[in-house]
Design brief:
- Two copies of one chain form a homodimer.
- Among the domains of chain A are: 5-35 and 77-109 and 265-341, FAD/NAD(P)-binding domain, CATH 3.50.50; 117-263, FAD/NAD(P)-binding domain.
- Chain A contains twelve helices and 25 strands.
- The longest helix of chain A has 20 residues, at 127-146.
- A six-stranded mixed sheet of chain A has the order 5-2-1-9-21-20, sandwiched between helices.
- In chain A, α1 packs parallel to α10 (323-341) and α5 (127-146) packs antiparallel against α6.
- By secondary structure, chain A is α/β, with parallel strands linked by helices.
- In chain A, β1, α1 and β2 form a beta-alpha-beta unit.
- In chain A, 32% of the residues lie in helices and 25% in strands.
- Chains A and B meet through β4, β5, α5 and α12 of A and β4, β5, α5 and α12 of B.
Chain lengths: 428, 428
């Protein structure tokens, strides 16, 4: 019987994985639970969705990452409940007791109450989302090539991206590149460059969390690529082949066969379970409000980190749902547990913001670093470097680098596969 | 209106693609129909199924390959019928007329009348087959890690491969490597090396089409890797968790959660349509018997090539369903069409056999080349080289080479992803 302090971590994303790695060699037994067998590097998921990279390039098997960490066991399991009183995590097929629990189950899409939009406008959170979006983008061009009716063809060649945060901006930029460069000369009946890419944003500028100066630069760059940017535009309805938008008092319908969702996220349902068990409040996107040390009120033994946690920075602003926050929180909680086992205390969690960035197609990006704001080629190089460095496996870094160089030189995206068992959409 | 002679090719596999490429610059208009948007390099599919390569590494978009071939249009379409009399190919959503038709629709799995085995023992023909097999292999180890019952755990750690042709031998060898090397140290409750890999073959030796001397070497190599090789063993039943085998008079049941099918193939259903329309006979695996020039009897304007065609070599032996045959046939038919348009004739198709080979795990292979029979390290290097050279895209050659080198040095297989929307199999 293993009598060491048992730390159970739910979720192998940025938060959970960094917590687990920071517990290497600690006098604890760690169990990492995830329903997927890999850590996914979500910031590059849009490149899988647009055929530039393969899923395995940005996904690393959790067992492989942690194989040399003797005190850690990875279990493929689905967490459905947490019994806070008896200190047990309830799985779909069993349960696991814990001494300390770290919940880092992330977030999913949020359709603001319009759940039927989900089928029509897939979001981008999982590998399956990415290959489905890739499938829809490529199929749209294929159907357009065979469509003789002008109006219908135009709808197949219209791509609407809802939401102009980093993911939406990156998707729209990549779509423009596919239409203008990648598919050039691929078709005989259509010109892919005729495709219309529409980026819709409810706020009055793209990249709302960024400084206005960078939003302006990003928008100019998107327009240069041929993207139609519509700010202050609220999606009021999505039907098959049609998106309805309200801008001010005007309603407008955009005929479009491909709609991608990059607008809203909502914390994992586990946050609701934790909130009702502990009395911790939830914010408007379902995140649990945590204490300054990221524990739950009245439950020092439960920590919530990453996209599921509502934590404030020093100025009282809530921290954004980005990888940097989750990674720092994971490392903080691991250190806190080590201290606590030695009877020591720790100051509250402090987020160090190293900046944020977004890439907009070929050789263009914007970056808001803590010491400088840049855009253009230098920002793009920075973006490439930061993302390469943060990939977990050496092999992936090499493979991604080669594919990026290849794409840059040839303007090709070789992972343009239409896969999946879904039927072809040819009978309209 | 385009009045050029219209060549329609059904299928973008080895036969169809090489026919299309050989018609580059010919005074014809070419339409290549495929229900997939990519050419798949099937000989390496087992490496996708075993997590060594990503799907996009061995799949090349057909449009990309043919983009600079002005006289050729690629259409994503599903062929459901062929109207031989009116010279039209019937699609699921329209039809296309032809002057000359090349049918190269390949082959699918064949379960010898036991179609319910298909769900229990998937075969390996498509990208989706490969990711499903990868999913089953990796999940079996995951479930075993969480299974406390000894017998049930053993069944999860038993992998049965049915059929010891090149695909079955390569799958079994790769499975042994996964168990012995790749997953070493990945688990805490099980030792992956305890996995049992059983290779079943109905004939009295593995690789039945190869010279007996190479079969013996391949079998010795498989045994060295820990594979249980059972020849003269006929599968009589497959149920969930159990494979029943007859060897001589004895029946034996093997408890196994993962069963892979590498035993039988059957020509595309289009062969039956062609046979009944033209009176051409079908052989026992559904291939159409073709004339010496690969046309259908009485229909000089229809050619059948590749895995769908039953053609004999100079000695009267029927040609095997391998890439070499299909490629040579595709090029032959393209040349014949060029000649015919000039009023010239061509001698009958002659197959040049450059040899066959199979790899058996790390640094081991057997090769039966026309001028030499080799096994071991040299055969393995030859195998690597031949397969690299035959990949269509330069980028894929580089990516595959890097991953092979990486695997060779680290014994890792980084594409170990469990993907797909199917539920986890934890409730037995």
């Amino acid at each position: 019987m293993d009598t060491r302090h048992h730390v159970v971590i739910v979720g192998g994303g940025f938060g959970g994985l960094h917590a687990a790695q920071s517990l290497k060699g600690a006098p604890v037994r760690v169990t990492l639970l995830d329903r997927r067998n890999f850590h996914l590097f979500q910031p590059l998921l849009y490149q899988v969705a647009t055929g530039a990279l393969s899923p395995a390039d940005i996904a690393s098997p959790l067992r492989g990452i942690l194989k040399r960490q003797e005190n850690t066991q990875v279990l493929l399991a689905e967490v459905i409940d947490i019994d806070v009183r008896r200190r047990r995590v309830i799985l779909s097929d069993g349960d696991v007791g814990y001494d300390t629990l770290i919940v880092a189950a992330g977030a999913g899409h949020h359709y603001f109450g319009n759940d039927r939009w989900e089928k029509l406008a897939p979001g981008l959170k999982t590998i399956e989302d990415a290959t489905e979006i890739r499938r829809r983008i490529l199929l749209a061009f294929e159907v357009a090539e065979r469509e003789s009716d002008h109006k219908r063809r135009e709808a197949w060649l219209t791509f609407v991206v809802v939401g102009a945060g980093p993911t939406g901006v990156e998707l729209a930029g990549a779509l423009a590149e596919i239409a203008n460069d990648t598919l050039r000369r691929d078709f005989r009946a259509i010109d892919p460059a005729d495709a219309k890419i529409v980026l819709l944003e409810g706020y009055d500028r793209v990249l709302p969390p960024y400084p206005p100066e960078l939003s302006r630069k990003a928008e100019a760059e998107l327009r240069r690529l041929g993207v139609t940017v519509r700010t202050s535009a609220i999606v009021t309805d999505i039907e098959p082949g049609m998106v309805t938008v309200r801008a001010g008092d005007r309603h407008e319908s955009i005929p479009a066969r491909t709609v991608l969702w990059a607008a809203g996220v909502q914390a994992s349902p586990l946050s609701r379970i934790l909130a009702s068990a502990t009395g911790a409040p939830l914010d408007s996107v379902g995140r649990v409000a945590v204490e300054p040390d990221l524990s739950l009120p009245g439950h020092q033994e439960i920590f919530v980190i990453g996209d599921m946690a509502h934590a404030d920075d020093q100025t009282g602003t809530s921290l954004p749902g980005v990888a940097q926050v989750a990674m720092q929180q994971g490392r903080y909680v691991a250190t806190l547990i080590r201290h606590r086992l030695l009877g020591q205390t720790m100051p509250a969690f402090r987020y160090r913001n190293y900046g944020s960035m977004a890439t907009i197609g070929r050789a263009a990006a914007v970056a808001d670093l803590s010491w400088i704001r840049v855009s253009g080629y230098f920002a793009w190089l920075t973006w490439l470097l930061v993302h390469l460095i943060n990939l977990v496996e050496y092999e992936n870094r090499v493979l991604v680098l080669i594919q990026w160089m290849w794409n840059y030189v040839t303007r090709n995206r070789s992972a343009r596969l239409i896969t999946g068992e879904n039927p072809l959409p040819f009978r309209h």
